[in-house]
Amino acid sequence: MKKNVMVCGMAAALAVSLAGCKGMALDGPANGGGTSAAGEGKEASDELYVYNWGEYIDEDVITQFEEETGIRVVYDLFETNEEMYPIIEAGAVTYDVVCPSDYMIQKMVENDLLAEVNFDNVPNISQIDPAYMEMSKAFDPENKYSVPYCWGTVGILYNTKRLEELGVAPPTKWADLWDEKLSGEILMQDSVRDAFMVALKKDGFSMNSTDAEELGQARQALIDQKPLVQAYVIDQVRDKMIGGEAAVGVIYSGEMLYIQEEVANLGLDYTLEYVLPAEGTNLWLDCWVIPKNAKNKENAEKWMDFLCRPEIAKANFEYITYPTPNKGAFDLLDEELKNNKSIFPDTDSLVNCEVFTYLGDEVDSIYNDLWKEVKSN
Amino acid sequence: MNRLQRFLRRTWQDFYLVLIMVFLYAPIATMMVLSFNSSKSRTQWGGFTLRWYQDMFASRNITAALHNTLLIAFLSALIATVIGVAACIAINSMKTVPRAIVMGITNIPMLNADIVTGISLMLAFIAFGISLGFQTILIAHITFNIPYVILSVMPKLKQTSRSTYEAAMDLGAGPVYAFFKVVFPDILPGVLSGFLLAFTMSLDDFIITHFTKGAGINTLSTLIYSEVRRGIRPSMYALSTVIFITVLALLLFTNFAPRKRAEK
Amino acid sequence: MSKKLLAAPYLIWMVGFIIIPLALIVYYGLTGRDGAFTFANVVSITTPEHVKALWLSLWLSLISTLICLVLAYPLAMILRNRGVGRGSFIVFIFILPMWMNFLLRTMAWQTLLEKNGVINGILSLLRLPSQSLINTAGAIILGMVYNFLPFMVLPIYNVLCKIDDDTINAARDLGANSVQTLLRIWFPLSVPGVISGITMVFVPALTTFVISNLLGGSKILLIGNVIEQEFTRGSNWHLGSGLSLVLMVFILFSMAVIAKYDKNGEGSAF
Fold first, then answer.
1. Which chain B residue has the Cα nearest residue C90?
2. Residues A147 and A159 in one domain
3. Which of C167, C211, C205, C204 shows the shortest CA–CA distance to C185?
4. Which CATH number fits domain C11-261: 1.10.10.60, 1.10.3720.10, 3.40.1190.10, 2.30.30.240?
5. Same domain? A178 vs A271
6. Same domain membership, residue A165 and residue A226
7. Contact B204/C101, CB-based, under 8 Å?
């Protein structure tokens, strides 16, 4: 098969490869540092395998952690909870500390994938606002497994100028994402629970619905919406909205601050605004947890403790701009930021909001099947 | 008339060649231009800058991925060549039936879809309890490289005559010595092209690496994929330009510089 | 005999990393989550969404293969008739893009096709209405054609180069016109090259998930995407394996059919 073509280009291959080898000899020792050693030297406990969302930490924080503790961090990214889970479950890679969301933590707890955190090693847990420890009891009833990291909502980001051009009023509710005038201007989240949350909430159902009829209605709604959707994306929403690719996008609240700053920096002639849909939305909390098969549990606890330090949490907040549950860090912020409602919404505006819960493997696969039907339609 | 016809045909052919060339090179040229654009916008020229190149070379991820890519390509090609050449010699002396079976299985990774090969290897690594990482990418690459080595060495090996090898043995050479003195020089071109084929296949692979890579390790392909999934940054254009120029220079150099030697 | 021993490393490798992995796919594909034997995963290819994905994949890869063929054949003819050597600069120009990383090439098209991309930028300069180009089936076909075109050009070109000028002249002398030479001489003699070109374009196009992800905005689900997502997100490896099994059988079967038409392996480049 491929052989044929490759052989044709053999003369050419010669070039690439010879040079490649040469380059190698030069490059090897110079760059050989800590990059390729991912799979080696497991017995040493000066390593920490971190599995986190994309753009979800200030890289300087990692460096600082490495310098302070002498632990080498192997840092890896995932895009969705659903993508992270099978990796941990299969033990394909043994991560020491992972940052899933609420419902996924519940799933991991129920399926016995998590190790209890030894909170004696995480004294800074006291910095976390008790309200969030309370909130996390929904998925970790005894606060045994998780250390809250960031929280937020999901809402609609819109491009004021583009909407004006289209003659559409700024969205206020999820149902506005079914406006035919927005054809080709909508960015939806490409993850099953988030997409169904939008459709379920639109019709006033719980986003944790297990009712076949409600789910069927949500599926149909998503299928109806599909022709209007420009793309199903995850981390790309941010760049696409900044680039003016679409008029509206479903996005996590924390991206807001970064986006507005970026728009200002680039001197663009439009502004992007964030709105919490009236029907209510997903209130989420991402926490650090330690998988049961972790090899460097103590390092993982050092990591958790480090991230709970107020000044570190503040540095992190300033970089990733997701609301922090860290009371100490919050107190360090400017008044202006503390009062920014789109970052730290008032609790009374969150009346209709819910937290995702794990619905069991069976319902999970129903969701997956329905989502596949939407996507293949 | 005839001359006019020929002229018209020639013009039409040139036009077609140019058309395809534009199709092939317009995207690459666009990326090269954008890599020097100081504005992040793709439609406005914000002035000339080398900033994205600085970003690229300063990025630990990109240099690490480059290093991994080259290291894996080299190691996998080398190991595949050693295993493959040994296998060729043995297969060559096999009887028809076992030989057909071995060759049949050898063909599987080449014929099969990459996605299936990648998934099957991932399942195997997990079943064997090998943690995904550098070593699994390496094993996977060796696996899909061996067939290319065997296919390039086999025809050359068939051409070598057994009698010279036996003559060498009769004259008192040990089998290993006889092999390296008599057989190896004959199959060397095949071995070399097998190695290079394997090297380039490894450089170019994305799908199999995607399924067999582990924590904190990227090759250039997987790095680009995850970057693009998050939004294209201008430093990716810079990377494209650098890769294109490197490939162009190397191919030009080997294809056209040593021509005289090759003709001899 | 000691020669047999030389096969040992490869045989062990073959069993460990070719046979066992395939056996695992078969095992996963034929069992459910509870570990019991079932055909459900394989049969699930007939559910509407899988049929749709498979059908769409077949359709898109077929179209792109055809486009590649239509573009590549004249190109190979022209290159061959220019009588340029195989290592010549002009041939080199047409295979050079192949050596660029496949993902970077796909990314380039994303840059061109996006709503605020280069093509729409040019259109708006010309005061033409902007088009939605990305995230459509057309964008995916374009990506496939662009990425796989050299895989079609090379084998055809190589086969054409092997056709002797004397054969063509003989046909001419016997009174054949250009159309007749094309149909009676060029086409039949280039069949092996065309066939190997077709397989080299069709199989990767059929099983791709990268192009549809990057240029289709995840709106278009191909069979490759379905399988990839079962493994990376749906976490139903049994279903993913079952579908892979179907795909594998399908490909190996078409290879076998093709091999019948290409017995002497002339399609290969050597």
1. B17
2. no
3. C167
4. 1.10.3720.10
5. yes
6. yes
7. yes
